[in-house]
Amino acid sequence: SRELLARSDKLAAVGQLAAGIAHEIRNPLTALRGFIDLMYQRARSNNRRYLEIMRGEVSRMEAIVSELLRLARPDRPQFQQVDLVDLVQEVVAFMSAQALLHSVEIRYEPGTPSLLVQGDPNQLKQVFINLMRNGIEAMQPGGSLRVRVFQDGHVARVEIADQGSGMSPEALARLGEPFFTTKEQGTGLGVMVSKRMVADHGGELAIESEVGRGTTVTVRLPVAQSAED
Ligand code: ADP
Ligand code: MG
């Protein structure tokens, strides 16, 4: 829809802006770090404590800037024919250990034996890792994460449904905004990046959620030409 399109344009613009700002901030940070080190060598011990704190905070800013640049300038996607069923099953196997640590069982429900799309396998894996991780993290006492891949006309659909905390309409509206996180160790970048990668594949990412019941994320991708009939 037009609204979805406008939203993904906005996200792309935000990503470019973030990359631009991150780049501009990197040089002044390098200068700050240099002068902090210089002052540290000449400082009395009571001032050294403050300079150590400053150096720690500059390091944190540098880490955020590097992460932003890495996200905003991903490797050029390598498009190829990908079997979405194989790829999703691979991610399920990969995420199972982490799921167990959260007492979550990932249940892959067979829909179709294979489903071809055009895509970058690494980016698509990253998308499903991000989404499954969110589902796992949302289920505090544990539960099961249901994963399905199926064909719906010209559209390949992957559904990831958790039985977790769910999201309020307010949280749902903010989901995908850069840095929106409710987790202590969260980056608030996982959904934004996933949405952009899916959009780069000509697809859409939709999220339905209900507080206390759980969240279902649906990724829609165009089926590859040769597989359409
Ligand atoms: P992060 O996981 O680092 O917080 P994300 O962009 O992946 O960043 O998610 C942003 C926020 O959206 C999360 O902090 C959480 O509040 C909410 N969220 C995402 N996925 C789910 C989900 N499956 N269930 C409940 N809340 C979710
Ligand atoms: Mg996340």
Instruction: State the secondary-structure class.
Output: alpha+beta
Order of helices and strands: HHEHEEHEEHHEE
Enumerate the distinct ligands: adenosine-5'-diphosphate, magnesium ion
Tally of separate helices: 6
Structure description:
This protein has 229 residues and is an alpha+beta fold. It is 53% helix and 21% strand. It is built from six helices and seven strands; from the N terminus they run ααβαββαββααββ. The strands form two sheets. A five-stranded mixed sheet has the order 2-4-5-7-6. It has a two-stranded antiparallel ribbon with strand order 1-3. The two termini are 25 Å apart. The site of magnesium ion (MG) has 4 residues, from helix 4.
List the helices and strands and how they pair.
Blueprint: H1 2-42, H2 45-72, E1 80-83, H3 84-101, E2 104-109, E3 116-119, H4 121-138, E4 143-152, E5 155-161, H5 169-174, H6 190-200, E6 204-210, E7 214-222
Helix pairs in contact: 1-2, 3-4, 4-6
The structure holds adenosine-5'-diphosphate (ADP) and magnesium ion.
Adenosine-5'-diphosphate is lined by residues 130, 134-135, 138, 162, 164-167, 171, 175, 180-183, 186-192, 215.
Which features does this protein show?
single chain, 229 residues, alpha+beta, two-stranded antiparallel ribbon, 6 helices, 53% helix, binds adenosine-5'-diphosphate
Tell me briefly what this model is.
This protein has 229 residues and is α+β, with helices and mostly antiparallel strands. The chain has six helices and seven strands, in the order ααβαββαββααββ.
